[in-house]
Amino acid sequence: MSFGFWILSLRPVLVELTYAVGLPLLWQREGATLQAAFVAAYLFILLLLSVADLEQRCIPNVVMYPALGLALLGAFVCPPGNWQSALLGGVVGLAFFW
Fold this sequence. Notes:
0% strand, single chain
């Protein structure tokens, strides 16, 4: 049995463990706030993208486009957010990776 197969068979356990540890820590740190909801959504999205990238070596646009919209929305509604800097960061990131 190869090392890659062993890690791949542990993937569901590691994903669930990440959620089981990450969400209570987030709740303890942020409480029941709108910012905590956005961070929890980011946790789900980033973990989904990480698993998809490791397994298929691609990042699906069907997940990325709504995630970009969620990030921009979070910059508008969350207190420490600054939508101008979020938009500028997105443009710079697009220019860098294009």
